[in-house]
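Example 3.
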Amino acid sequence: MENKNMLMIPGPTPVPEAVLLAMAKAPIGHRTGAFSKVIAELTENLKWLHQTSGDVLMLTASGTGVMEAGIINFLSPGDRVLVGDNGKFGERWGKVAKAYGLNVDIIKAEWGKPLDPEAFTAKLTEDKEKAIKAVIITHSETSTGVLNDLESINKAVKDHGEALIIVDAVTSLGAYNIPIDEWGLDVVGSGSQKGYMIPPGLGFVSVSKKAWKAYETAKLPRFYLDLGKYKKATDEDSSPFTPPVNLMYGLQASLQMMRREGLAAIFARHQRLTQMTRAGMRALDLPLYAADSWASTAITAVAPTLVDAEKIRSTLNKKFDIAVAGGQDHLKGKIFRIGHLGFASERDILTVIAAIEATLIELGVEGVTPGAGVAAAASVMVQG
Amino acid sequence: MENKNMLMIPGPTPVPEAVLLAMAKAPIGHRTGAFSKVIAELTENLKWLHQTSGDVLMLTASGTGVMEAGIINFLSPGDRVLVGDNGKFGERWGKVAKAYGLNVDIIKAEWGKPLDPEAFTAKLTEDKEKAIKAVIITHSETSTGVLNDLESINKAVKDHGEALIIVDAVTSLGAYNIPIDEWGLDVVGSGSQKGYMIPPGLGFVSVSKKAWKAYETAKLPRFYLDLGKYKKATDEDSSPFTPPVNLMYGLQASLQMMRREGLAAIFARHQRLTQMTRAGMRALDLPLYAADSWASTAITAVAPTLVDAEKIRSTLNKKFDIAVAGGQDHLKGKIFRIGHLGFASERDILTVIAAIEATLIELGVEGVTPGAGVAAAASVMVQG
């Protein structure tokens, strides 16, 4: 049905009406006192969301641009880095590091499985001469729905003492508790079209004091992505280059909503939606691609065996106007992915499960108990 | 008065209601057939606007990001480049080139004066061994309101034969005729918040076949700004990274408006607004910072002698809610700049001139003939 779209992909995520309307305001000059106030408010609220008293900078860029900035500002050609790779995004940060001539050591895990913190500990413990300058990991691997054990890997990095930890939190920030200051995370990148509940186009990166220390001697070339320029401007409630004014109006509205909900409630909601989704899929005999113990709270990947994943996806889309994501690369046709981050509620989860039930029945999958998925999800909700 | 803002700065420029409302639509997935159609339409209309059958690529970036991409994709460390510098932006491209270890030869002109094409011809003619790999110039220098003689400089580059011409057309594209294919311009960068009539956040770069040839051997590091990735995706009506969906909805609406107006009419309008503005300022004895023969059609810089430029600017803002820009760097307090590009009409020019007249009277400037500015502008309009 026209105009009836329901977005349940890992990004863009649904955008609240208040945010859409805020974005439709006429822009004002970005070098005015009025806009400085907007930047000051955004910066304060971003620090709250990042649980940090350090710097959180805004860039006009996608998540990839932000992660590239997070890497190239703190390293020099030939520096040794460890990169965790258990999915499409981990793989990408390895490519970025190689494109800049870093000495890249990839620590792999199978897609669908988490990175092994022990593998990081081993490499970091071996490194007596402290040659490893950074560890780059993806927290929530969007391609598989796996949440890597950031806390444990970070502990290994802290024991090493020298290396920075650079985190892709693109789909986890705002969906999972990441206490940046408490854990001492050096660089954390994220993007607007995820937990932030605003459309794509804005990226965010938090930077620790230790990372700024590394910045002083880092020699990789950069200009537009030079975070020092962003810090200098942000300290003056300004921006180094023309910022995306209307997206920032949207961000203003969304961060105000997030503050009203509160961090603990936001994280609990994502946890609850994840458990509801998983219970629903289980009740429908749809195998979950990632195990419970490392399930992302942003996205759930489902690997149906009795029916093609793309058929489910396409029926959900055609019959119910619900967009879920397909598998990427070698997982194409093998999984579908339900996004439940940002502006997502219990109602959305009941809806998508109900639609999946109906889809399975429509596709003639045998053994589906009508109502079982929704009932299981509702039960989790009531308990949780 | 609250909410009564009138934007007459060189960017962000005013945004039509149709564009603002288009941006307030709920985003859809960027990897869908429906969004591919949007990208295909945008690409076709961007080629029309750029007067090229070559590639026009869209990046989530400010104008600076786009120009950096335009430079680093086609060059290798140590390559010799000529950079024209007669204002803040020309100066910036020199800094970008240096940040990437290029061998940079700056050709300067005084602020307020255009670059001398002869200076380029001399350097390029001397270069028998064809060591110069690119000439980087700013077409409309936003900081001074000077339009550089792109056509003549480009002829010198074409006579050289080897060097690429890389053009910052951020405030000239859509405000002045730039026939990219006819002139053989290799790389032309521009930004959304200018002639495009949409808010900041999207950048554009056109790339010639000759530039793609250079790309094949260019060795400067890049990933997010790697234009090869954008070309590959654009050829499939897609994007390499999550694109700013809502800004692209806005662009869809604005390009449709531009096609209805027509290129010749758009350029004639900008020409007319420029002449009206200049006639108005002259009639009020307000000196123009750039001479007629090199006046930008995007912005007019005014250098008042009898009263502080910032006083005029501040009164325009406080009394009439009209935002004009101040001077940058050493021109701070010495000039104010009236933007008349994008969604600007004759009515806006009459309005700002009337407000400037009233401001001069309010500030007690002697010798102002009430109505003279508006009359002069109206007369130009009627003739023009």
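Chain B touches chain A through 53 residues (CB under 8 Å). Chain B has 14 helices and 13 strands.
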